[in-house]
């Protein structure tokens, strides 16, 4: 068989096509596996959903010293809102989490809010586990079709240890926290 420019071009085209097909097949969105076995029943995601996206949120929670409801003369630290960067398992920034209202926003422009369904204790000094039902996402991207979000693997985030008294009313303090946010979609 004689090698001609046309036969070389044909072979290179076949090699390029094979490489492209291989790359595309590895881009599939196969569901990730996540065990629900170690979590409290109240925050387990209902059957019929699969884990679509795993992120870690690292940031801070803001609290404000305010009058305690129905307790004249008493004050307490009140949750104001979160501010965190969401990263994937490789540590690459993929979005943010902020509020109020609690909002998850992917770098692809998709974003959503959610309604809390349940919380459960996660350990002393840590925010509680949480399960929320996602509202429909805006934009297009990773968050479209998300049905539930779980907050797990928590570190920190509880109200400040500093005293909150009438002299500090209106003062804000931030505390560091970290949590995994697991995004689920219907099968």
Automatic annotation (TrEMBL):
InterPro entries given in the database record: DUF3455 (IPR021851)
Keyword set, alphabetical order: Signal
Superkingdom of the source species: Bacteria
Signal peptide region: 1-29
Pfam families (UniProt xref): DUF3455
Name listed for the protein in its UniProt record: DUF3455 domain-containing protein
UniProt source species: Zoogloea ramigera
């Amino acid at each position: 068989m004689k090698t001609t420019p046309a036969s070389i071009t044909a072979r290179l085209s076949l090699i390029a096509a094979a490489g492209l097909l291989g790359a595309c097949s590895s881009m599939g969105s196969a569901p990730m596996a996540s065990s629900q076995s170690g979590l409290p029943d109240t925050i387990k995601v209902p059957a019929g959903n699969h884990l679509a996206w795993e992120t870690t949120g690292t940031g801070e929670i803001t609290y404000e010293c305010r009058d305690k409801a129905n307790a004249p003369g008493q004050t307490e630290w009140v949750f104001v809102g979160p501010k965190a960067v969401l990263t994937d398992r490789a540590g690459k920034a993929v979005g943010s989490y902020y509020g109020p209202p609690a909002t998850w926003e992917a770098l692809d422009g998709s974003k959503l809010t959610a309604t809390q369904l349940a919380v459960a204790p996660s350990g002393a000094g840590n925010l509680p586990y949480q399960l929320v039902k996602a509202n429909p996402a805006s934009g297009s991207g990773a968050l479209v079709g998300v049905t539930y979000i779980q907050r797990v693997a928590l570190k920190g985030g509880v109200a400040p240890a500093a005293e909150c008294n009438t002299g500090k009313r209106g003062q804000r303090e931030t505390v560091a926290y970290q949590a995994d946010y697991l995004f689920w979609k219907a099968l």
